[in-house]
Specification:
The protein has 14 helices and 13 strands. The protein has helices at about 20-25, 45-50, 65-70, 85-105, 120, 130-145, 195-210, 210-215, 230-240, 250-255, 285-295, 305-310, 320-325, 335-340; strands at about 5-10, 30-35, 55-60, 75-80, 110-115, 150-155, 160, 170-175, 175-185, 190-195, 220, 225, 245.
């Protein structure tokens, strides 16, 4: 009996979203995983390479020649392009191109890491335009128009990372009362979805394990839709520390210091070095104005009954996640792009 395992190519496998996917796919030794990484010597790549069944393929995920080598002998693909690095225009191109290469190389199942198409959900009102959401959303529309044979395809649509509560969503001490932590976002009373990334990885594994159900499926995943006042209350209940939610305007949000330069453009790596002259790129302010408007107006939905059926062991509430992880609100690095922007 052959001991050759099906090979999964993971594109974007060393990022915050990709690492739990690679770990989930490698668990149980059912799949071998080839992770395409620009730098094999990075800590993230080295950590993944230490996992049995995982190998690192060094190269540029947005280079045709590299991709053609990486796709050789691959059975499955998990593709997570990085709109923050390359911008909306390049993300649309590479999302579609990765699908085309998967078809050419006779891949059995193509899994795309999607996001909500904010502009479309908002009837193309410009207040919802969000580069890193819309880029993936347009690729999702393209994929949804493709046949489900001879290659299966699935979309795994995520939302805000719950782990971001230690970074870009973290609380800060109240200037007038340092014993009180303040969660400040421009959400009003809206309920916003958050996803535990370990569970995201488990959903990716389910997709490949269950093609009879996942082929042609756009699975929208989250842990819980939660109002930020309830999130602050959960924090207080778990930690014993006083916390409040402060609703802020967009202008106020951009003065909080979460983003080092709110007028910097997003997507430098996809503009050939001419980011400042590329009118298709969004500034941080432009991008995250649309982003927060999308969640504030509750344009998205999820089927939690389906998610419970697929993953009965999933973390089901933000409070449960806080308890499980020992969350304290202290800063922890999550997003590589955020770390790089702060340098």
């Amino acid at each position: 009996m052959s001991d050759i395992k099906p090979l999964v190519l993971a594109i974007g496998g060393t990022g915050a979203q990709g690492v739990p996917v690679v770990k989930a796919l490698a668990s149980g030794s059912k799949y071998a995983v080839r992770v395409l990484s620009r730098t094999a010597s990075s800590k993230e790549a080295k950590d993944l390479a230490s996992i049995q069944g995982v190998t690192i393929f060094e190269g540029d995920s947005y280079d045709e020649a590299t991709l053609r080598e990486a796709f050789k002998d691959v059975d499955f693909v998990f593709a997570n392009t990085n709109g923050f690095a390359i911008g909306e225009k390049a993300e649309i191109y590479w999302g579609i191109r990765l699908y085309e290469l998967a078809r050419e190389f006779r891949v059995k199942h193509f899994v795309y890491a999607g996001l909500e198409y904010a502009s479309k959900l908002g009837n193309f009102n410009p207040k919802y335009r969000t580069g890193h959401l819309d880029g993936k959303g347009k690729v999702v529309d393209y994929l949804s128009a493709q046949p489900t044979t001879p290659m299966a395809w699935s979309i795994l649509t995520s939302c805000l990372y719950i782990e971001g509560l230690s970074e870009v969503l973290r609380p800060f001490p109240d200037p007038t009362d340092p014993n009180t932590m303040v969660f400040s976002v421009p959400l009003g009373d809206a309920k916003c979805p958050l996803i535990h990334l370990d569970d995201y990885g488990a959903y990716a594994r389910w997709i490949l394990d269950t093609p009879d159900r996942s082929n042609g499926l756009d699975l929208h995943v989250a842990t819980e839709d939660i109002a930020w006042k309830d999130l602050a209350a959960a924090f207080s209940a778990v930690t014993g520390q006083n916390a409040i939610y402060k609703d802020v305007t967009l202008d106020e949000y951009f003065t909080l210091g979460i983003w080092p330069d709110v007028d910097a453009k997003i997507g430098h790596a996809g503009s050939g070095g001419g980011a400042e002259e590329d009118s298709t790129l969004f500034t941080v302010r432009e991008n995250f104005s649309g982003f927060w408007n999308t969640w504030k107006d509750e344009l998205t939905t999820r089927d939690y009954g389906l998610l419970d059926e697929i993953l009965p062991t999933r973390v089901k509430t933000v409070r449960e996640w806080m308890e499980k992880t020992g969350y304290t609100g202290r800063y922890e690095s999550v997003l590589k792009d955020y770390r790089d922007a702060a340098k």
